[in-house]
Amino acid sequence: MRIGELSALTGIPRRMLRYYDEAGLLIPDRSANGYREYDAQSVDRALQIRGLIEAGLPTRVIKQVLPCLKQSRDILVAGATPETLALLEGERDAMTERIERLTRSRDAISRYIGTVRRMRLHEVSVAS
DNA sequence: TTTCTTACA
DNA sequence: TGTAAGCA
User: Fold this and answer.
1) Where is the signal peptide (predicted)?
2) Which residues touch strand C (CB under 7 A)?
């Protein structure tokens, strides 16, 4: 299938699909006219890549981990080299930090919302 | 019509 | 990421 169809199937913008190609994450075949030609497997592959990117993994890391995901959507143990493992540990820690920052932000926002609501309630009761 | 590359906001 | 240009 061509890029337009893969885009429709995955919901991933064609722009991003070309970016995955440039980044070496998902390299399609090329038809005679130069159009990118994707196989059915590319659907899962593209979805996996998007998931990893949304999780905040740098493309360089994804590029290294991707071979481990080649088959199914589960991780292939055989493809895990010590270097890859070390890289992933670093990413995991960075992810944990991000989660903690997000948690603090969320809690701060929750407190703010609670405060504003209490103020509104008082205004209403005083007015009526 | 759809896709391609390159470049800029 | 979006968009525009100029092709094939």
Assistant:
1) none
2) A 12-13, 15-16, 19, 33
